[in-house]
Fold each of these.
Amino acid sequence: MLIGKKIGMTRLFDETGIDFPVTMVEAGPCLVTQLKTIKNDGYSAMQIGFIDLANKKITKPIKGHSVKTKTVAKKHIKEFPLLNDSITAGAEIKVDAVEVGQLVDVVGVSKGRGFSGVMKRHGFHGGRRSHGKNSVMRAAGSVGEGSDPSRIWKGKRMPGRFGTDTVTVRNLEIIKIDTENNYLYLKGAVPGPKNGIVYISK
């Protein structure tokens, strides 16, 4: 129920001196840009936006949508289940909507690594480096069967595009909340590069 921007990783210490690897996320403030109702849309949900959209990028459909709901056009928009019935269009959702110690799920897009080989993409150990072998050190090796079935099995791990996948990390604990700067400190790693957009839900 929050859209955020990944700032980076650091570590925090507790009272006993134990340190925790944490990811800093600038979460919100998010604006409720639309409410979906069972009567009008067939389901109940809230649409929230994050980061104001530049004027030169506001198209007529976006402008009409924001005028209809009396809100500001946002760059990133996402639907979440409705938190409670008291929320209205135009309301702000900040980091105080969550609590320290709470477990949240974070969805992000992993770093893109381009077209990668089997060692980088799947962790293959590569070919042998001795006994006359040449140029097979990072090769995939044999990939197909013989006469039967005369094809490569579906799902075979091979070179290809690596990264830029939607990744969900579940049950990350909130270690600290900075309400002044809208920062969340989540224990562990969050998918994506710095300044990548992530979606946080209970």
Amino acid sequence: MLKAFTRKKGQKGFTLIELMIVIAIIGILAAIAIPQFSAYRQKGFNAQANADAKNAYTAAQAYFSQNPGGTVTLDLLLDNGFKASSDVTTAVTTGTLAGLALTATPANGTLKYSVDANGTITSAAK
């Protein structure tokens, strides 16, 4: 059993140069990956806000199908099936059927999404 842990004649470990090269390669890979990871996070935050804007519009249409002359608020959207994400701020600017305007802004994202009465979603920088 001890023979397995003993070194054979002439066998050596890694040299300092080999270890430094491996560390340099890992550093280069990390330098490439970190900015990409940050960009993917921003896309994820923005996609979450876009989904909240779509879901808020769908909940507003569900409310208007029962109350065509009504005015929708954020509380009424929540009652009609809208579930807001924790990191997205959703607001109802205008709550009528003809002039519906919703916004969804991610806390950590870079874009603000707006929905009009036709369901068209537009994005703009925060």
Amino acid sequence: MGKFSKIPENTFDELQVEAGVLLKNFDPTAPELVDDDIICATTGGITPSCVPTYSDWGEDIDNCPNGMKELMRVSGWECTLGFTALNTTPESIRLSLGAADIAEGKITPRQELNDTDFSDIWWVGDRSDGGLVAIRLINALSTGGLSLTTTKNGKGRLAVTLRGHYSIKDQETVPMEFYVSKGTEA
């Protein structure tokens, strides 16, 4: 083996394993799984994404090369959580629609957004050392709408894409946070 063909000794302790779970509430300082907080069963994994958008303040300056580091600015973040839900509960359908109301098993989309349509959603996954990795999507709202796929002799699948949103009350907070806790099992 060559001298540059190695991996860190702690690699296998730090692996994120399995698909994880989507939760309504979670406290990373006192991690506990409460069954009532589980949003839905999923299939095909869960895809969190947090991508910055950059502005180049030098792009219109004569003789200034594009991408000069001193003139680059972060103009925003696109934070999303994508998954496929198997549960077709009124709440999972409302979550996929975004702006909707539930009344006696009937889910009705509406034209306007309410502040209550936005909620924090947590993804929490296990680490191979017994610890966890957690992601909080802040002010999550569906941007993909409802897309239900059915198959003969199969399970219905509800595709959901949630996007985190900034708040006018806290304009500096990027709508996604990340947590890693080491475990004790090695």
Amino acid sequence: MTDNVVVLDASALLALLFNGAGADIVAARLTTSVIGAVNLSEVAATLADLGMPEAAITATFAEFDLDVRAFDAGQARVAGALRAATRAYGLSLGDRACLALAHQLQAVVFTADRAWAGLGLDGIRVTVIR
């Protein structure tokens, strides 16, 4: 497992965007972070729900120069396999996609979702930012 790359959950990027608890932790690692396209979509949906126009969402993402990774077949298999282990924690497909990307990259996940602290998944390390 490597500490060189951090995978951001949607909640971690939202913490940064809204300067919430843990934003400083995310900001410090932004240049070595990646985010899955599925999680970026979740962030875009949240911003749209708050009334942000699509052009402003696009500009916001461009401002952070995010390294966005596609959701591929390998991640799909891992995310599907994680369902049984994460069901009791209420994790969504987006959450499992984030964990699958971290598994694929052998990277740590940053999340603001405290429920993830108890996951204890083999080969996937989680850091709760708040």
